């Protein structure tokens, strides 16, 4: 992708937020006609309000879309910044002005078009008979507080807005000369040589004094801070803690077994062999007659010599898979075979041979070779399974009761966790060295290693007032409450403890400074008079071919002025030293990737189209006299707590 795309951040935000019209999903945003009181209005568009509820709903939607897009990599903090929230508000404003413009321009969407989109969104609601399951559709919409009428109206509005979007973007085009020039820049090759001044080569020239160490220590206090820490006790209410308090009696198990005996019954199974003479039901009469005649002939043979059934099946059956096994189909239960075949097999006694049975596959001759009668598993065999199921059901009901008691008790008796532990028979545990953020080195499943819980521990209510935290759900069916035992404020490691670390850092900094000084002197000399001695072998690089090149060096080389060759450029390389680069040749590759050039032209056209839309929306916002009544604020930083009982 061109560097142009990477540097136009506002355009990228526009792509991610404005042009993704989210209303097609069943999301339940308030209608654009929603009104709120003045105190609840965050912005106005043409005098009409955008409420805090609308903004909150849009933030939740955007967070859910990002969660689906990023999966486990999604961090909710991405949406807690003022920039992210402002982007969502800008999106709402843009939608509002686009909707108003679509209406004023009389852009319409026909009912058949609406129906087609709905069918494409909910294909599972279209039955085999071609009828749409309107009842199920109503239920899906009802869960989002919508009806078919309101959903269709929303859909119609969104599709009209898309028409407007498409009309504006379709005006963009890229002149071929512009596309060619940009592709030439992208393909441009530069032959470059490196002269590296390594920091390590200047180690013997560095003189580090105690004053330098003390100066570094005083100017970089954050590097030597020991973060604040809490030692806390906590109690956990989860499924295992509840299950441990649930007992199941033998009477309960027996009652459950008697009421669900069908679940523990193994149905009858039958084993059969068959000979198949294949013919389709819709085959010509002559083919059917020939197949039937052949099947009748084989039936006569097996009736005459039943012991040869397997031999005859292997030689004549047109079901090759079972034929190789002498016609054996193994044991099968109810519903495993096609209906005519299964009915005939169920009527036979063991060892009997059927008359001809016609199915969709042809004519069958069936021999029943075995029967496994239905059996009921004895209670002793399924007792453990039943006890586990009953315990699970009882624990689920008990968990709901205990969760309410857990939440109430930690709040009402807030000075200690002993009351809730005694009441619900829970264990009080202790965790030390808890910071404001989860510890990556700790077990990720540890209930105390959770952002919500840690935030609660560092709140004024828990830290200053010495009260229990509220009951916090840190995982499905897992609640935790904590109580601060000790708090250690931020401290600074003593100088003597970190002196060796500082000496190493200062030494490396001084070495890098000497390397840079030497490199810059060399660079100045080379610019005055060209000299290729000492440089490494030339390497050809381009924006599409830069493997193995330090990213900082590559960026400097590609930005260098090459109107006069050879050209020189220098760059600091962290942890290495200072590099001087000699650019001796600039040109185009011998062969061009035409497919990539076509794709690049399409990319440029797309970017220009999006810029056209961005500019158009800005004009619409100006006409609509957009006003932001409540400036967006980021989420409170850690430590800014105002919780109270």
Automatic annotation (TrEMBL):
It holds the Pfam family SurA_N_3. Signal peptide: none annotated. Belongs to the PpiD chaperone family. This is Periplasmic chaperone PpiD. It is a single-pass type II membrane protein. PANTHER family: PEPTIDYL-PROLYL CIS-TRANS ISOMERASE D, PERIPLASMIC CHAPERONE PPID. It comes from Collimonas pratensis. SUPFAM superfamilies: FKBP-like (SSF54534), Triger factor/SurA peptide-binding domain-like (SSF109998). Keywords: Cell inner membrane, Cell membrane, Chaperone, Isomerase, Membrane, Rotamase, Transmembrane, Transmembrane helix. Residues 267-370 form the PpiC domain. InterPro entries: PPIase_dom_sf (IPR046357), PPIase_PpiC (IPR000297), PpiD_chaperone (IPR052029), Trigger_fact/SurA_dom_sf (IPR027304). It is found in: Cell inner membrane.
């Amino acid at each position: 992708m061109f560097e142009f795309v990477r540097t136009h951040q506002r355009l990228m935000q526009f792509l991610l937020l404005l042009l993704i019209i989210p209303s097609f999903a069943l999301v339940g945003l308030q209608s654009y006609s929603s009104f709120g009181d003045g105190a609840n209005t965050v912005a106005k568009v043409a005098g009409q309000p955008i409420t805090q509820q609308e903004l909150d709903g849009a933030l939740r939607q955007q967070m859910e879309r990002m969660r689906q897009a990023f999966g486990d990599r999604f961090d909710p903090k991405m949406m807690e910044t003022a920039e992210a929230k402002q982007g969502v508000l800008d999106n709402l404003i843009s939608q509002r002005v686009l909707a108003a413009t679509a209406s004023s321009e009389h852009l319409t969407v026909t009912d058949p078009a609406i129906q087609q989109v709905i069918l494409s969104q909910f294909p599972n609601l279209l039955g085999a008979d071609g009828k749409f399951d309107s009842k199920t559709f109503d239920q899906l919409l009802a869960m989002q507080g919508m009806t078919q009428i309101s959903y269709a109206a929303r859909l119609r509005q969104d599709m009209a807005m898309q028409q407007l979007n498409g009309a504006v973007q379709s005006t963009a085009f890229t002149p071929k000369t512009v596309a060619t020039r940009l592709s030439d820049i992208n393909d441009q090759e530069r032959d470059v040589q490196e002269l590296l001044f390594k920091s390590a080569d200047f180690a013997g020239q560095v003189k580090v004094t105690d004053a330098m160490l003390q100066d570094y220590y005083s100017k970089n206090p954050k590097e030597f801070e020991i973060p604040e820490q809490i030692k806390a006790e906590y109690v956990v209410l989860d499924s295992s803690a509840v299950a441990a308090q649930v007992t199941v009696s033998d009477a309960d198990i027996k009652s459950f077994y008697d009421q669900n005996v069908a679940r523990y019954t193994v149905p009858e199974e039958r084993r059969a062999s068959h000979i198949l003479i294949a013919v389709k039901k819709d085959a010509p009469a002559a083919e059917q007659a020939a197949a039937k005649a052949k099947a009748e002939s084989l039936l006569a043979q097996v009736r005459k010599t039943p012991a040869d059934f397997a031999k005859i099946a292997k030689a004549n059956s047109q079901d090759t898979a079972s034929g190789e096994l002498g016609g054996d189909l193994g044991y099968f239960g109810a519903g495993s075979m096609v209906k005519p075949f299964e009915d005939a097999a169920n009527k036979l006694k063991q060892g009997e041979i059927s008359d001809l049975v016609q199915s969709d596959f042809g004519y069958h001759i069936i021999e029943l070779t075995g029967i496994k009668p239905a059996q009921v598993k004895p209670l002793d065999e399924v007792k453990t399974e039943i006890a586990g199921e009953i315990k699970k059901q009882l624990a689920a009901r008990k968990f709901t009761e205990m969760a309410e008691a857990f939440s109430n008790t930690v709040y009402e008796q807030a000075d200690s966790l002993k009351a809730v532990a005694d009441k619900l028979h829970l264990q009080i545990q202790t965790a030390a060295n808890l910071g404001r953020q989860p510890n990556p080195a700790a077990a990720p499943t540890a209930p105390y290693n959770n952002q919500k819980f840690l935030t609660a521990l560092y709140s004024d209510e828990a830290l200053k007032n010495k009260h229990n935290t509220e009951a916090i759900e840190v995982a499905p069916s897992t609640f935790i409450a904590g109580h601060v035992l000790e708090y250690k404020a931020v401290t600074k490691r003593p100088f003597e403890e970190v002196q060796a670390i500082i000496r190493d850092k200062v030494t490396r900094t001084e070495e890098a400074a000497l390397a840079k000084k030497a490199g810059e002197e060399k660079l100045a000399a080379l610019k005055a008079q060209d000299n290729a001695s000492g440089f490494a072998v030339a390497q050809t690089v381009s924006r599409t071919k830069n493997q193995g090149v330090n990213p900082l060096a590559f960026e400097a080389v590609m930005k260098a002025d090459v109107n006069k060759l050879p050209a020189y450029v220098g760059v600091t390389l962290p942890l290495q030293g200072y590099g001087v680069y000699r650019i001796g040749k600039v040109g185009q590759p011998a062969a061009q990737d035409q497919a990539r050039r076509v794709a690049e032209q399409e990319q440029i056209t797309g970017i220009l189209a999006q810029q056209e839309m961005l500019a158009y929306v800005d004009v619409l916002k100006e006409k609509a006299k957009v006003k932001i009544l409540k400036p967006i604020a980021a989420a409170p930083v850690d430590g800014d707590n105002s919780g109270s009982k």
